Hints:
Distance between the termini: 30 Å
CATH architecture of the largest domain: 3-Layer(aba) Sandwich
Bound molecules: zinc ion
Amino acid sequence: MDNQGLKIIDHWISGEEKEVSRMACDKNTKPFGNGMPDSIIIHYTAGKSGKSSAEYLCRKNVQASAHIVLDRSGHIYQLVPFDTIAWHAGKSSYKGRSGFNNFSIGIEIDNAGVLEKVGDKYKAWFGSLYSESEVVQATHRNEASPRYWHTYTEEQISKIFELCEALMDRYPTITSILGHEEISKGRKQDPGPAFPLDRLRQRFFDSREDTSANNDKSEGYVEVSSLNIREMPSIHAGLAASPLPEGTKVRILQEHSGWYKVEAVTEGWVSAQYVALKS
Length: 279
Ligand SMILES: [Zn+2]
């Protein structure tokens, strides 16, 4: 992908003033723990504009915040540095873990969310009206029938791909991208079906998990006498199980910056240099 030069310096996105604004949102001060963040959570703001949402989330008396708010032109507002926990996930759980603020970078995208048809217009919960060209009728992954949703702009979609790429380059602990709708199922609908969440994930994560187990390249064996298996692809991450002895057969589920996510007795991450691929 063509990265147009989003850089992260000292846990802040750096860029020209017209592309990036840094907002002082100093209510968040708690740093992430070791091996964190490991996820990116995608949200929509359900607000009127990116700027107004960013300003709202920065208020001292508001018990919510996010690392990034992305407006409809693709302009980035950064509110919280990436080494600090923000308050975007709320009550959340996924695959046995809860409290995703502690694990994740929160990206809020300026989008009105669910819309209601009123005459030939579509109305947001806060009263703004949108024309048909900004609306898609689609069924949410957690629902059974279609509703009307505000579309995301091309500038937003391309900026999100760019942002995720910059974040994952800078923070190799990040191994998943999830929607708020997936970690707060039933309570939240964002980013909703107008957002290409699955395409975003496909772009960054090798989908070996979904490919046939007969694929030769997806198996290997441990080449050293003892290999640590970790919860995250980082030497600082905790051990997922006892070290794997030499010769242990592993199925490779995913690859990330010199690490393989493997399935052996348990699932975890091992340094790829010690695994010989079956040929
Ligand atoms: Zn959300």
